[in-house]
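Predicting holo structure, manganese (II) ion bound.
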Amino acid sequence: MPLNEYRKKRDFRVTSEPSGDGLRRKAKSKPLRYVIQKHRASQLHYDFRLELNGVRLSWAVPKGPSLDPSVKRLAVQVEDHPVEYSDFEGAIPAGEYGGGTVMIWDTGSWVPEIPDVDAALKKGELKFTLRGKKLNGSWVLVRTRGYGRNASKPSWLLIKHRDEYATKDDVTTAQPRSAVSKRMLAEIARDDGGDVDLTEAGDPK
Ligand code: MN
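Done. Tokens:
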């Protein structure tokens, strides 16, 4: 079961995150979805999730994506998440796994630029196009050696390819609000009973 590790870490009687027990959506000809969730937990990071084979492949990107092709952003692969997780925006109770505030920072569809995604993941180089509200154009995830010999959390680099969407502008500070509710992190924490002071540090000044 690909979601075992995800479920093991959470108490679904306490957190309002989805358990992933719902029926999997059969995505025959529908575009594949992606989401980036800005997550103020013990450390601020951006969770990058690509829909594939009924789950969301997930990477934690500490600094978030960069639109500058000369910048490589560390992306630590974490356990697959349920498809429904992509709709989650709110507070995770303190003391629970990932306790803090989650914002749907960007959402849209993704298109593999290679014929065989599973083979590309195995090889450690996945090229894809994003069609989101904030991110667009061509990107690549490249697995790296050196970091994390621990095979359960392999390190990758998230890099923007050169195209008309590439820019030196910092998209994480220029567009800090939720892609769905337009709220800042601190507003989500306030609305959902989370820790506003802790969360505020994740919003740009
Ligand atoms: Mn996270």
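The chain has a mean pLDDT of 90.
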